[in-house]
């Protein structure tokens, strides 16, 4: 049992983090090389090698979007004490619009990593660059990941329809984009609570999450060592990291909501921005005069941050300081390119409260704040619900698009029913898939532990698989040009009984194979033309293959088909008379 | 290891089937008594007793729809050798339109249960009665379960928009209704394959399925002892049982599809009808001239029955005998009230094949066959896909309603993506919820083992929970008047930290409690105003309760609210100036 925090971090930095390129079977890391200005970009993908061969006799390779960063690259040695390679450092440096900070009082376990801030008066955000007509290396990187044009990416970022969350102090992150016209993204929440978990468990969860496909990770820690835990996460995260700064602010005032203040909050966001947090949830839309709208709700205010702000406002009879000082917040964040995730502190936490006045009142304020942030070139996304029944989803998307000027929507689910604690990854995957299809840009996952306790590593995986399903289903529904390829490759493998290829293309190859092997573990079963669902005689795909693959049958069927068409449509009775079987 | 089938059935008939009224916590069986004609109906519900008390100081009780039959009624002794109480026998007998069969050559382990058939030339279907203006005890029973009017039920059945699947030879079943205007229903598939499972495992699965909420169960056995296995299931099933008779027909011709024939099929459906099968999947829409439409598919024909018929047709160069002899099929089934589930033999088994010409060509034929069946007063439902991406679901529902004259739709999922074998209960719960919301009457579940192997008991439960979620989400979306009550009661319990009530109202109380107890097992935690997700300081619901429940605060907030409204809307800047905090 490691008591000392230093011991804990040493322990975390052990070799077991090197998952290696074979975490996923038949997979390897590949990089697509792009030159931009003087920079050489290496855009990561995962390549799955199939047993299928093409006409040249080569094995077919299937490229997949890859969030796992260096953890699946055997050429990169992982040392958590050192942090990941800082791939963006040269790009940031070459822009020449930042200074290196030299504050010795800043608490850090990573003194070798330079911290930066914008030169005075300058905005160093991707939105600022995009509005000036600049295509940054980040935009080129993202365009390659998405299979789209870099100029299109620039336009989306300039207009605010998409964001690239890349704090200048998180140079280790592989840039990604959040917007309705790109792949639907998934966020995984991790973090300690006062009751359970620890620094090394959370670093472990972050790595586990990016392995299983998390596009961003939010560290929602409320336990001990929030600052240190987050630092180890950021330095070792290949994806953007989000936070909710009000939690750490509350810790600084010893847990008394009434003692929160703008000064404490300001200090907190600067520290977090200097660590490298890429986006921050800020509940600036929870306004004092909205609170009465929540009094008759079934589940009140279910947002931690929202309820803390409500408590503060009622204690002081004052407007929310996050609202009051919103322009000051923007001035700070534009100097680091921290994106604002405008929090939905008044989101509904039950079906009964869905789409109520409190929820949409806050959304109106978020629209107002979006325009202010954009004046400062601060990137913005809009957080969304919650608990919403199927028939009320459309209204959410329509209102959000209109009121917040098409900024990216980032929903928590939503859960389409309240009746299944223990399975809320499913109740919410349903809502998430549909609201993603309707245009939501990022889906915040929900695990089986929602409403019941802090998720463990297995819950993180379960939540991620459910949400990768939802995000992909949304992409298919939206007609994303690259989405279908994976379904088609897997189904082709299934039909041709290339079992290993079917497993290896699946979101979770290990589970697919394990389930198959529960009843048919022998090697020969991996090329068998059946499984234990139907057995050899009843496998529809095997039967289909047998009868349809004979050229004579194909020719015969085409001839038959012509003959029937030529005969015109026949009455049922006539055909019955014609078709009565003779002796068999 | 029980080798002999007789031993196996003895073993199955052990006392462990008596799950008792405490299978679900804080629950008991109640019966709503209704008199109809000379019959006394006892309509079962499950009553959950909460810790919440009403104004009279009594504990609040919550009624839930209950599919578990006598298995949760301690007053009924379960003896599988004897079968369940035959609650409908008196109703059937009193209609006086059937004769008891006395064929000693009929294989049965239950000689004490009379078998019936209609008197010559008479239709004994619920549709026939409904068209004549009769309200049967079955309709009254169903109306009570659904909370709707019996006359409305009659109209829905008469029009064909709904079916009540109640074979006169399955008097043990508690009547239920399948139709767009009623609760969305869920079917669980069970059954042996040649590779695995056994009679007693499948009887066990059936009981397990109805405990977890299956509204009907299909026995899709293809292994040994199909006839005997099904009989034990039917005699002990409180829900309608469905089959796919072509499987047993194939067994009778030693597994050679080419040796199938109308005669063998006819013999099979009569045997199954006399056993008491309530509905039969009949792939009469797979027509010879449709087969060429499947040749270029990615996954061909994925329906077992569909592929067997295809193989037969190609071997004989003849039209599908199920189509040819469809009127004869109707003549047989109307004498027992076996409903026809018109099979979707050409459903798409991959996203690539969704909504293709083969799929809709078959649907056109199903429309034709629906009208024929209705002329014989045979009840009909229409089977549906499959694998369908989100944006193509609507077209399925619109076409099905129009082409098959609003007969009930009964879909398999659909799966909204192919990429997640191992999790197809989730990929398909998404499609099922949405297509249910759009009007589908019954959802056939999919388990985590789909595409990989035969489901075991745990898979059955996982599939059922996912589908009860989908069905309930569909009911909420459709605005079913009774649906919201459960969500509201559970959310109220959640907000008031009545943890046990929250668990007990959940679809799976045991798992909800177990997940909670993973981190907070102590008894005190069941009344704690937090869980390990956030801990006591950060629990939003606790914070909300604390600040909002004070009357002074409520009054204060109302006053504040009035004051703000009276002041009109203020510019952001003005409010900021007004609200700058003084020293703290």
TrEMBL record, chains A, B:
One of its GO terms (biological process) is thiamine biosynthetic process. Catalyzes the synthesis of the hydroxymethylpyrimidine phosphate (HMP-P) moiety of thiamine from aminoimidazole ribotide (AIR) in a radical S-adenosyl-L-methionine (SAM)-dependent reaction. Pathway: Cofactor biosynthesis; thiamine diphosphate biosynthesis. It holds the Pfam family ThiC_Rad_SAM. Its EC number is 4.1.99.17. Substrate binds at residues 189, 218, 247, 283, 303-305, 344-347, 383, 410. One of its GO terms (molecular function) is phosphomethylpyrimidine synthase activity. NCBIfam families: PRK09284.1, PRK13352.1, thiC. Its cofactor is [4Fe-4S] cluster. Belongs to the ThiC family. It is an enzyme of class 4 (lyase). [4Fe-4S] cluster binds at residues 531, 534, 539. Keywords: 4Fe-4S, Iron, Iron-sulfur, Lyase, Metal-binding, S-adenosyl-L-methionine, Thiamine biosynthesis, Zinc. Zn(2+) binds at residues 387, 451. Residues 24-98 form the ThiC-associated domain. Transmembrane segments: none annotated. It comes from Candidatus Carbonibacillus altaicus. This is Phosphomethylpyrimidine synthase. It catalyses: 5-amino-1-(5-phospho-beta-D-ribosyl)imidazole + S-adenosyl-L-methionine = 4-amino-2-methyl-5-(phosphooxymethyl)pyrimidine + CO + 5'-deoxyadenosine + formate + L-methionine + 3 H(+). GO terms for cellular component: cytosol. Binds 1 [4Fe-4S] cluster per subunit. The cluster is coordinated with 3 cysteines and an exchangeable S-adenosyl-L-methionine.
């Amino acid at each position: 049992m490691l008591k000392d925090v230093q011991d804990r971090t040493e322990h975390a930095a052990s070799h077991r983090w090197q998952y290696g390129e074979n975490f996923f079977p038949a997979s390897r890391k590949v990089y697509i090389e792009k030159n931009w200005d003087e920079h050489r970009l290496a855009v990561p993908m995962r390549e799955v090698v199939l047993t299928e061969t093409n006409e040249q006799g080569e094995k077919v390779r299937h490229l997949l979007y890859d969030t796992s960063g260096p953890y699946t690259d055997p050429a990169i040695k992982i040392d958590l004490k050192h942090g990941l390679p800082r791939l963006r450092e040269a790009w940031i440096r070459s822009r020449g619009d930042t200074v290196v900070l030299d504050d010795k009082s800043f608490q850090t376990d990573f003194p070798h990593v330079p911290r930066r801030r914008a030169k005075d008066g300058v905005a160093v955000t991707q939105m600022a660059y995009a509005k000036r007509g600049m295509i940054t290396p980040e935009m080129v990187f993202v365009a390659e990941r998405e299979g789209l044009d870099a100029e299109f990416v620039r336009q989306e970022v300039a207009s605010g329809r998409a964001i690239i969350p890349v704090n200048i102090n998180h140079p280790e992150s592989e840039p990604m984009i959040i917007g309705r016209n790109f792949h639907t993204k998934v966020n995984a929440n991790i973090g300690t609570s006062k009751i359970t978990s620890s620094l090394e468990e959370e670093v472990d969860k972050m790595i586990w999450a990016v392995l299983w496909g998390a596009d961003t990770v939010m560290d929602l820690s409320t336990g001990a060592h929030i600052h240190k835990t987050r630092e180890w996460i950021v330095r070792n995260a290949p994806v953007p990291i989000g936070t909710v700064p009000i939690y750490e602010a509350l810790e600084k005032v010893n847990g008394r909501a009434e003692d929160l203040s703008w000064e404490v909050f300001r200090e907190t966001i600067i520290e977090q921005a200097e660590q490298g947090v890429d986006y921050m949830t800020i509940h600036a839309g929870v306004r004092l005069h909205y609170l009465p709208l929540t009094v008759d709700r079934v589940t009140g205010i279910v947002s931690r941050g929202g309820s803390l702000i409500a408590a503060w406002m009622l204690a002081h009879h004052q407007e929310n300081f996050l609202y009051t000082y919103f322009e000051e917040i923007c001035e700070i964040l534009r100097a680091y390119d921290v994106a604002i995730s405008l929090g939905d502190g008044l989101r509904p936490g039950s079906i009964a409260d869905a789409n109520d006045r409190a929820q949409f009142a806050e959304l109106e304020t978020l629209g107002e704040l979006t325009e202010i942030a954009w004046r400062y070139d601060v990137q913005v996304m809009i957080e969304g619900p919650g608990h919403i029944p199927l028939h009320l989803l459309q209204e959410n998307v329509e209102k959000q698009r209109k009121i917040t000027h098409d900024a990216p929507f980032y929903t928590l689910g939503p859960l389409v029913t309240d009746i299944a604690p223990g399975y809320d990854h499913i109740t919410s995957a349903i809502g998430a898939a549909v609201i993603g299809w309707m245009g939501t840009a990022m889906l915040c996952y929900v695990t089986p532990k929602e409403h019941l306790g802090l998720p463990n590593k297995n819950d993180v995986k379960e939540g991620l698989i459910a949400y990768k399903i939802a995000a992909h289903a949304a992409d298919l529904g939206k007609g994303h040009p690259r989405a279908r390829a994976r379904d088609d490759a897997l189904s082709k493998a299934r039909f041709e009984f290339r079992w290993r290829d079917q497993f290896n293309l699946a979101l979770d190859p290990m589970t697919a194979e394990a389930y198959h092997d529960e009843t048919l573990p022998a090697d020969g079963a991996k090329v068998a033309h059946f499984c234990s669902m139907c057995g050899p005689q009843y496998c529809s795909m095997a039967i289909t293959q047998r009868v349809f693959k004979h050229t004579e049958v194909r020719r015969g069927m085409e001839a038959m088909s012509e003959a029937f068409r030529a005969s015109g449509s026949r009455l049922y009775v006539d055909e019955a008379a014609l078709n009565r079987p003779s002796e068999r």
